[in-house]
Amino acid sequence: MTFQLLIDGHLVDGADRLEVVNPATGKPLCSAPRADADQLEQVIAAARRAFPGWASAGYAARRGAVEALADALEARRDEFARLLTEEQGKTIKEATGEMIGAIAGLRYFAAQELTPETLRDDGGSRIIEKRQPLGVVAAIMPWNYPMLMLALKIGPALITGNTVIAKPAPTTPLTTLLFGELAAEILPPGVLQTIVDQNDLGKVLSSHPGINFVSFTGSTATGQKVLASTVDTLKRFSLELGGNDAALILDDASVEAVAPHIFHGATKNAGQICLAIKRVYAPRAMMEPLCAALTRLAAEAVVGDGLHQGTTMGPINNKAQYEKLLDLIADARANGTIIAGGGAPEGGGYFIEPTIVRDLPEESRLVQEEQFGPVLPVQAYDDLDEAIARINASDYGLGGSVWTGDVERGIAVASRIESGTVWVNKHLDLPFDVPMGGAKFSGIGRQQGLEGLKEFTQPTIINAAV
Ligand code: NAD
């Protein structure tokens, strides 16, 4: 298969190429076009030219176009899902789930409209708030959910009248490029463009005077760089960053009922989810049955190529992340007890067994850092206040969950956790109409819901004497 960039309505080759690796084999899958700084300038210029027409086209025309993108994606859903598995590693079931989510996300945003709001009309003044598009949006994406992230950025950006430059992560560019081919048939030139880099053009986008808004999802370290680089141009931005979500099990929970949810929340997408469960806190009396149940579930997992039937967990997306996880496992082995997994199956792919570790010192790396993989520490606690304090001691504050037999108690405990989202008796439930985002080092701004939609706009207040 050949892939091209979408620049100003044309599918073109990159100035250079980069190799995309299939993480299930560790071998090259195919090469992708890689843009240089000149091509990026062309893209930004085209996006600026396209903006006035797209902004004034109105919601009805834009809605039709975003729906057409969703239709086109749906028509080729299975092809996209297969490519997603090949470049990202997730199982074909997970890839199909991601495609379903991406299509539904586009449809959700296609149906939204920000209408002018009358803030006051009292005979003396009529004050109206209108939401205007910001201009050119840079959508900078991570490698864990390439298509879902793309949909959740371009959906709200396009419907509100912005033009978009989509930049996938260098290890997962192919599905975004294929989506660009669909967009070339549907959208006017410059309204949506695709650019691929080798981690070198993101910083150009976030500092460029031709970009009005950076919608960034990625690691906290890179998010901090983005924040620093927006200063000179006073650029608007939203940062969806890393997390270290805790699952807090209360003493009235049923281990049997909770364990499968915890395991799934920690190992879905091979644990490569910003909002995955990344540490567990359990009452000391519950440790033995909980650890036994998690060990059983880990032993049942089938790690392998995501395209193979029966695989329940695919590989880690890239070599750097795989090596980071091996390092964290070595550290956990030295400081705690590995009760399941801990190995890296042979075969050339970046495979990690689902790994459960217990009794680590609280200050250990696996408890404190974001592992972003299927390696889960289970920590005992004796006192609930102390457990909440340990959870809140993290710089991260993306998500978290409380597990209990008493929902009201769960809600009361959840409100004491310093995170953007805290679930009770579930994890990873993210309806499109509910805003999500991070507290503390997990981000600034919100995605999804009305709040997330408004981030792609700026208010103009019209204040008339009547
Ligand atoms: P990353 O920060 O390495 O890269 C993310 C994107 O930023 C890539 O497209 C990359 O090319 C680009 N980039 C690199 N340097 C840049 C710079 N200086 N300026 C601008 N852009 C630059 O993240 P990753 O490893 O691809 O993704 C994993 C991380 O993303 C994890 O920490 C995870 O928790 C986080 N994440 C967060 C959310 C959320 O919604 N909060 C969702 C998914 C992933």
Secondary structure layout plus pairing:
Elements: E1 5-7, E2 10-12, E3 16-22, E4 27-34, H1 37-56, H2 59-75, H3 77-88, H4 92-110, E5 117-121, E6 125-133, E7 136-140, H5 146-159, E8 163-167, H6 174-186, E9 192-194, H7 202-207, E10 213-217, H8 220-229, E11 236-240, E12 246-249, H9 255-267, E13 279-283, H10 287-300, H11 319-335, E14 337-340, E15 355-358, H12 365-368, E16 375-381, H13 384-392, E17 396-397, E18 400-403, H14 407-414, E19 423-424, E20 439-440, E21 443-444, H15 449-454, E22 457-465
Parallel strand pairs: 7-8, 7-10, 8-9, 10-11, 12-13, 12-18, 13-16, 15-16, 18-19
Antiparallel strand pairs: 1-2, 3-4, 5-6, 6-22, 11-21, 14-15, 17-20
Helix pairs in contact: 2-4, 2-6, 3-4, 4-5, 9-10
Bound molecules: nicotinamide-adenine-dinucleotide (NAD).
Nicotinamide-adenine-dinucleotide (NAD) is lined by residues 140-144, 167, 169-170, 199, 202-203, 206, 217-219, 222, 225-226, 240-243, 274, 370, 372, 398, 438, 443.
Structure description:
There is one protein chain. By secondary structure, this protein is an alpha/beta fold. 39% of the residues lie in helices and 22% in strands. It folds into two domains: 5-241 and 442-465, Aldehyde Dehydrogenase, Chain A, domain 1, CATH 3.40.605; 246-431, 3-Layer(aba) Sandwich (Aldehyde Dehydrogenase, Chain A, domain 2). It has helices at residues 37-56, 59-75, 77-88, 92-110, 146-159, 174-186, 202-207, 220-229, 255-267, 287-300, 319-335, 365-368, 384-392, 407-414, 449-454, and strands at 5-7, 10-12, 16-22, 27-34, 117-121, 125-133, 136-140, 163-167, 192-194, 213-217, 236-240, 246-249, 279-283, 337-340, 355-358, 375-381, 396-397, 400-403, 423-424, 439-440, 443-444, 457-465. Helix 8 links the parallel strand 10 and strand 11 (236-240). The structure holds nicotinamide-adenine-dinucleotide. Nicotinamide-adenine-dinucleotide binds at residues 140-144, 167, 169-170, 199, 202-203, 206, 217-219, 222, 225-226, 240-243, 274, 370, 372, 398, 438, 443.
